[in-house]
Design brief:
This protein has 30 helices and 19 strands. By secondary structure, it is of the alpha/beta class. The chain folds into three domains: 289 residues, Alpha-Beta Complex (2-enoyl-CoA Hydratase, Chain A, domain 1); 178 residues, Rossmann fold (3-Layer(aba) Sandwich), CATH 3.40.50; 172 residues, N-(1-d-carboxylethyl)-l-norvaline Dehydrogenase, domain 2, CATH 1.10.1040. α2 packs parallel to α3. The longest helix is centred in the C-terminal third of the chain and has 21 residues. The radius of gyration is 28 Å and the shape is globular. Bound molecules: 3-hydroxybutanoyl-coenzyme A. The site of 3-hydroxybutanoyl-coenzyme A (3HC) has 26 residues, from α2, β7, α3 and α12.
Length: 717
């Protein structure tokens, strides 16, 4: 027998919490925030939860409490991020953290045993809530994930997470989770010791109830190897561990992100001075971080991507269902596209290549990635086999008849791609969409001889496909709305964030990347050392410098797009002619171990191949500051991004920001090119462009749209 209790205890009732008493002495505390698809924690719940805890404490009939979510597919997604915008001072933000800490402390100290029953996402404050419970049981479902992703918002866990997780699973593993923000899937969570049990969803509540009746656990210290004991449990060991963590973090962040440093400091305080000191430091740091510009920008990225998840490219046009997919070409891109289609979208994929080795390579791409997960015990072998069975190959169009979308990732050659369009039109069904993964050829040209041009579209992925989150969806003038919405939805199923862009040379991402790369090349020719240029832009916040990026992408591939850009937009895209010498010298970059960097040395890719200077007839020497170098390259990108928005290549500043961050690695803490221009002020951007126009040349002439915006004192947002 169960009995529902309404909270009639003076606290405002949000309707988010229900307490159901059962005869077996277990009460179920269900969180189900009305009118929201996911539970998030809000400041105003504080009094209500406290009142409910009073009630539980006062009822001797309640021996255990199972804390569960009323949402069908998630537990609690953390503190409500939108609530942070209302904080006007550090003290406001600190108070939010302290409020959460007090409630969670109380849960930990409660007389009845609390068990968190987790299915789906338990993130940020959601996991912190679960960590305050005495036990955690989760489902073995794919959707279950437990993590502290606050760092990705420029924050740190503010409700006890920095203190409870290290005490539960050890400092190193906990710190890694907080510094990367990567969540653990169910199997990992069990392996790390975050949860006490992992069970099928059908028995989650039943198992959680048995834990609730078990009494509080006598928690042992996390299991540690001898080495880890020395590192985590002794004064000198801890000192060394935190010092190393600081060094590694600084070498990654270049000082651009304040949150990771605070995470390390606060964990250290708690580990050396105890839980209470740790919690105080945590709340202080949370207060400071909420007010930083970095956190503000990172939170805007969260809101933008959440908004984009709901869009399908054309308002009101429903996508067609995609039940089977074809991939043409089993190279690196084809292999990656097949992988995300089978593993993320869960759709059968037929891969065609002209050579059996091509198909084998594509299969191996998926096999290797999945096998890694199995080896790390993050995935069951049966699941891997299930996903691998979705991939099949063929040397002809056998098995393509029922493909709803075919993605082409063959050699960059217009005639070849047009032939592929014709082949797909004759071998597949009438509704099959032809999506080209070209990075340089305008889709209009690929569709030029198509019988059904409305079903031809661009779907441009970034390498490596399994990691890079962006996909550009490129509609040419005749692409139908239904083709757009189906392709956008398909890319989302593959785990991508699609941005719809207009057809034209370079689309959006490569169009803004090219002038930036060209400027880096011009600086080399002006005598700046290659590594000085790369360092300048890494310090600015890019994941790799432009010259290193060219080596990674392939110098031949990276420069292929230039003639298309010059054709369409003129001189400002011209690459320095000396670059022909680089290609003529057989330098293609990392792939043939010959580029701007050395690849057959002790530290492959880390040292510059000095012979490049002799080849270009240069004697390198530093004559410009890192700041100036970064400014010159980045201004070229900003100027082009503004033109893209003005010409409708991208539909909004938001799309332009997300495209640059997810496709190029534009520093997320700056919010993307458009948010960065707003921070600098458009008139400042124009003034700096004019400065370089005078000093370097006409290619720096500010875009008309920027001049107009500066005159009218406008911003992009
Ligand atoms: C004090 C604490 O330490 C501080 C914190 O907890 S900060 C917050 C930490 N938590 C996070 O960063 C998690 C953020 N959320 C996510 O990553 C993803 O939403 C998710 C993985 C949970 C789910 O992804 P997905 O299934 O694709 O759903 P998604 O569309 O993103 O979200 C569904 C809805 O929940 C909302 N939502 C999810 N997490 C939210 C959060 N923490 N705050 C506010 N809204 C949130 C989304 O805005 C969206 O709302 P809408 O439908 O009204 O637009």
């Amino acid at each position: 027998m169960t009995q529902d209790v309404t909270t009639d205890n003076g606290a405002a009732d949000s309707g988010a919490f229900t307490l159901t008493r059962q005869d077996n002495g277990v009460a179920i505390l269900t969180m189900d925030v009305p009118n929201e698809s996911m539970n998030t924690l809000k400041a105003e719940f504080g009094d209500e939860i406290s009142a409910m805890l009073d009630e539980i404490e006062a009822d001797p009939g309640i021996k255990g409490v199972v804390l569960a979510s009323g949402k069908p597919s998630s537990f609690v997604a953390g503190a409500d991020i939108s609530m942070l915008a209302a904080c006007e001072t550090e003290a406001d933000a600190r108070a939010l953290a302290t409020g959460g800490q007090e409630v969670f402390d109380r849960i930990e100290r409660m007389r009845p045993t609390f068990v968190a029953a987790i299915h789906g996402a338990a993130l940020g404050g959601g996991l912190e809530l679960a960590l305050a419970c005495h036990y955690r049981v989760c489902t073995d479902d794919q959707s279950t994930q437990l993590g502290l992703p606050e760092v990705q918002l420029g924050l740190l866990p503010g409700s006890g997470g920095t203190q409870r997780l290290p005490r539960l699973i050890g400092i190193q593993q906990a710190m890694k989770m907080m510094l990367t923000g990567s969540p653990a899937r169910a199997k990992q969570a069990k392996k790390y010791g975050i949860v006490d049990d992992m069970v099928p969803q059908s028995v989650l509540m039943e198992v959680a109830e048995t834990y609730a009746l078990k009494g509080k656990p006598a928690r042992e210290k996390p299991q540690r190897s001898l080495m880890n004991k020395a590192l985590e449990l002794t004064g000198p060991g801890k000192k060394m561990l935190f010092k190393k963590a600081r060094e590694q973090t600084l070498s990654k962040t270049k000082g651009n992100y304040p949150a990771p440093g605070y995470i390390i400091d606060v964990i250290e305080t708690g580990m050396n001075e105890g839980m209470q000191a740790g919690l105080r430091a945590e709340a202080d740091a949370f207060g400071k971080l909420v007010m930083t510009p970095e956190s503000y920008q990172l939170r805007q990225i969260f809101f933008a991507t959440t908004q984009m998840k709901k869009e399908n490219g054309v308002e009101g046009v429903a996508p067609q269902s995609v039940n089977k997919v074809g991939v043409l070409g089993g190279g690196l891109m084809g292999g990656g596209i097949a992988y995300v289609t089978a593993t993320k979208a869960g759709k059968p994929v037929r891969i065609k290549d002209v050579r059996p080795e091509g198909i084998a390579n594509a299969m191996k791409y998926s096999y290797d990635l999945l096998n890694k997960k199995v080896k790390k015990r993050f995935m069951r072998k049966t699941e891997m086999q299930k996903q691998m069975s979705l991939l099949t190959g063929s040397l002809d169009y056998n098995g393509f008849q029922d493909a709803d979308i075919v993605v082409e990732a063959v050699f960059e050659d217009v005639d070849l791609k047009q032939r592929m369009v014709a082949d797909i039109e004759s071998h597949c069904h009438e509704g099959t969409i032809f999506a080209s993964n070209t990075s340089s050829i305008p889709i209009t040209q690929i569709a030029a001889k198509a019988n059904r041009p409305e079903q031809v579209i661009g779907l441009h992925y970034f390498s490596p496909v399994d990691k890079m989150p962006l996909a550009e969806v490129i509609a040419h003038a005749e692409t139908s709305d239904s083709t757009i919405s189906t392709t956008v939805e398909f890319a989302k199923k593959q785990g991508k964030t699609p941005v719809v862009v207009k057809d034209g040379a370079g689309f959006y991402v490569n169009r803004i990347l090219a002038p930036y790369m060209n400027e880096a090349a011009n600086l080399i020719l002006a005598g700046e050392p290659v590594d000085h240029i790369d360092k300048s832009l890494v310090k600015f916040g890019f994941p790799v410098g432009p010259v290193k990026l060219l080596d990674e992408v392939g110098i031949d591939v990276g420069t292929k797009i230039i003639p298309f850009l010059v054709d369409e937009f003129g001189e400002r895209f011209t690459a320095p002619p000396a670059f022909d010498k680089v290609l003529a010298d057989g330098r293609k970059g990392k792939k043939n171990k010959k580029g701007f960097y050395l690849y057959e040395s002790k530290n492959p890719g880390k040292e510059v191949d000095d012979t490049i200077y002799a080849l270009l007839g240069l004697t390198p020497s530093v004559s410009r500051s890192e700041r100036d170098i970064a400014e010159r390259c980045v201004l070229m990108m900003l100027n082009e991004a503004a033109r893209c928005l003005d010409e409708g290549v991208i539909r909004s500043a938001r799309d332009g920001d997300i495209g640059a961050i997810f496709g190029i690695g534009f520093p997320p803490f700056l919010g993307g090119p458009f948010r960065y221009m707003d921070t600098l002020g458009v008139s400042h951007v124009v003034e700096r462009l004019r400065h370089y126009e005078q000093e370097v040349g006409e290619k720096f002439a500010p875009a008309d749209v920027l001049i107009k915006m500066a005159e009218n004192d406008q911003s992009f947002y």
